[in-house]
Inverse folding.
């Protein structure tokens, strides 16, 4: 069996604090308790989830950051989690839809 050495210093994947211009969305019927995000020029510039499946949501955040909002909506809308009729990804879509609608007003 191969072994490996852990780094001496743990690495931080995400900055500890969010940029000041983020929006906050409180998701419904999922494990995550809050989604903080920022959209810039039609792209998701920042997203962090509070609560929920930590590793999965860090991965989701990493994958969608920088993507066009319309592409995120196309790919993630309607995804469910277990027996729930929604998911953290679908709730991110709800947050983004609301932000897009607000920016069009």
């Amino acid at each position: 069996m191969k072994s490996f050495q852990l780094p001496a210093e743990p690495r931080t994947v995400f900055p500890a604090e969010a940029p000041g211009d983020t929006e906050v969305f409180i998701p419904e019927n999922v494990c995550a308790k809050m989604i903080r995000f920022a959209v810039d020029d039609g792209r998701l510039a920042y997203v962090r989830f509070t609560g929920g499946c930590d590793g999965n949501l860090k991965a989701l955040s990493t994958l969608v950051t920088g993507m066009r909002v319309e592409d995120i909506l196309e790919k993630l809308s309607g995804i469910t989690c277990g027996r729930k009729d929604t998911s953290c990804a679908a709730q991110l879509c709800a947050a983004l839809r609301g932000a897009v609608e607000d920016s069009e007003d």
Residues 61 and 76 are 12 Å apart (CA to CA). The longest strand covers residues 32-40.
